[in-house]
Automatic annotation (TrEMBL):
<dbReference type="Pfam" id="PF14219">
    <property type="entry name" value="DUF4328"/>
</dbReference>
<feature type="transmembrane region" description="Helical">
    <location>
        <begin position="217"/>
        <end position="237"/>
    </location>
</feature>
<keyword id="KW-0812">Transmembrane</keyword>
<feature type="transmembrane region" description="Helical">
    <location>
        <begin position="97"/>
        <end position="119"/>
    </location>
</feature>
<dbReference type="InterPro" id="IPR025565">
    <property type="entry name" value="DUF4328"/>
</dbReference>
<feature type="transmembrane region" description="Helical">
    <location>
        <begin position="177"/>
        <end position="197"/>
    </location>
</feature>
<keyword id="KW-1133">Transmembrane helix</keyword>
<feature type="domain" description="DUF4328">
    <location>
        <begin position="90"/>
        <end position="239"/>
    </location>
</feature>
<keyword id="KW-0472">Membrane</keyword>
<feature type="transmembrane region" description="Helical">
    <location>
        <begin position="139"/>
        <end position="156"/>
    </location>
</feature>
<protein>
    <submittedName>
        <fullName>DUF4328 domain-containing protein</fullName>
    </submittedName>
</protein>
<feature type="transmembrane region" description="Helical">
    <location>
        <begin position="47"/>
        <end position="69"/>
    </location>
</feature>
Length: 254
């Protein structure tokens, strides 16, 4: 079993701590000594923080979907020729809610991205300790891969799959279905959101605004689905790494 304090060395027989943490020996043998200079660090705290902030993103997206629906509805009434102060008041209210939702999404997304990338870097470093031969990209791509144009469309998925395989129980490889489903929805939400933002630069009247609002509603709904699957990915990968670390060194039979 791995040391409960440092999460680096094997626990001493009959104890929860390693010899170094117990003060018995200055040089204990590491559990996974495959990559000198690296050691396991628990991803649990960052994983929980990322899950919570992804939940905040989901809440902000739900608010945005509601605001989009209100605007979509009132724009439809305007297109049908409805007039009067009531419909214009509804339109103004919907516009204010859409702007408020956009601000809430921006703040929650920035906070989530910062914590998520910290967690992602942590699990990538742990994967290097578990199984460095499975890592097809250098550690720097764990952050850079999300921001390089074009490469960001597939590098993060590839790195996630490498981490996933390295974090699977010894001698097994778990299905990639969850990661693939999350990444597919993430790309779809990016594509639809990008299309709606490009279209919103043109002012072609109520019909055009109505169509753009519909696109935004779909984009935000896809964001919700992608964020929910991201929560599952973070939770499962965090649990896999924790369980593997607690299992200790590679079984002799492997």
């Amino acid at each position: 079993m791995i040391c409960a304090r440092c999460h680096h060395f094997a626990a001493a027989p009959g104890a929860a701590l390693c010899h170094r943490c117990l003060g018995d020996s200055p040089e204990p043998a590491p559990v996974f000594g495959s990559t000198p200079g690296l050691w396991l660090r628990s991803p649990v705290g960052l994983g929980w923080a990322a899950v919570v902030l992804l939940g905040v993103v989901v809440a902000a997206d739900l608010f945005a979907v509601w605001a989009d629906f209100l605007k979509y509805d009132v724009m439809g009434d305007l297109m049908d020729g409805e007039t009067g102060s009531g419909v214009f008041l509804r339109a103004d209210r919907a516009d204010r809610l859409v702007r408020l939702a956009a601000g809430a999404r921006s703040v929650s997304m920035v906070a989530c991205v910062i914590v998520y990338l910290c967690w992602f870097r942590r699990v990538r470093a742990n994967a290097q300790v578990f199984d460095p031969l499975r890592q097809s990209m250098s550690p720097g791509w764990a952050i850079g891969g999300w921001f390089v144009p074009v490469a960001s469309l597939w590098f993060p998925r590839r790195i996630t799959l490498d981490i996933w395989d390295a974090s699977s129980p010894w001698g097994t490889t778990r299905s990639h279905a969850l990661v693939n489903a999350w990444w597919t929805l993430w790309l779809l939400s990016l594509f639809v959101g990008r299309m709606s933002s490009l279209d919103s630069g043109d002012d072609l009247g109520a019909a055009w605004d109505h169509a753009i609002t519909g696109e935004m509603l779909v984009a935000h709904a896809l964001d919700i689905a992608a964020a929910v699957l991201a929560i599952l990915v973070v939770a499962r990968l965090t649990r896999m790494q924790h369980e593997k670390a607690m299992a200790g060194a590679v079984p002799a039979a492997l």
